[in-house]
């Protein structure tokens, strides 16, 4: 089977593990060169992913570590991708965190950090990616993940960005994952096990009965949606936040 033709350059944030890693691998298989990001502490995981990509495909991959809540870091991520890979066609603002506590137990520092990463991080990714795409003059695609209690903020930001950037040929959408079996979900499981006296994995197993399809999702299933949204077939879709949860919420 022949390799897919070159599709462009994509940045994926939060790509060291879980959903972000799955998206990076899928976009590589679709024909994208990738700049993969995560926090500096996860640089070794990024390097392992790059090795996996470059040893098995003709695609180029570079690591762009940084904190998505930091303006200078995000600009640097975009600039490096453009300089080393020759441009930018897709921005996947996937990085996100969660605070696995009731509101009453959540500190203001935890709340501020949650919004700094999930909302300000998405804003900065949209802003700097769009700046680069507009300079190139060939349009582009931006996608963001909606996580935790910041989902509504990212949804509103996505709608505003879609309205603002549509005239430049840039589409902007978001995906809202449900229960996806990753290290991220595993940390929630550990919290529930401690809080409720459950066995490891028991809480995760109970989630299956809360959705119509009767199972938890995988990063591959989120990556499949993202693959479509960044394709030319999805050029008339923008400003949308698409729930990918196996039928837990019907909206």
TrEMBL record:
Pfam families: adh_short_C2 (PF13561)
Presence of the UniProt keyword Oxidoreductase in the record: yes
Keywords carried by this UniProt record: NADP, Oxidoreductase
InterPro entries, per database record: NAD(P)-bd_dom_sf, Sc_DH/Rdtase_CS, SDR_fam
SUPFAM superfamilies: NAD(P)-binding Rossmann-fold domains (SSF51735)
MF terms (GO), sorted A to Z: oxidoreductase activity
PROSITE patterns in UniProt: ADH_SHORT
Family according to the record: Belongs to the short-chain dehydrogenases/reductases (SDR) family.
Name the UniProt record assigns to this protein: Uncharacterized protein
Species this chain originates from: Pleurotus ostreatus (strain PC15) (Oyster mushroom)
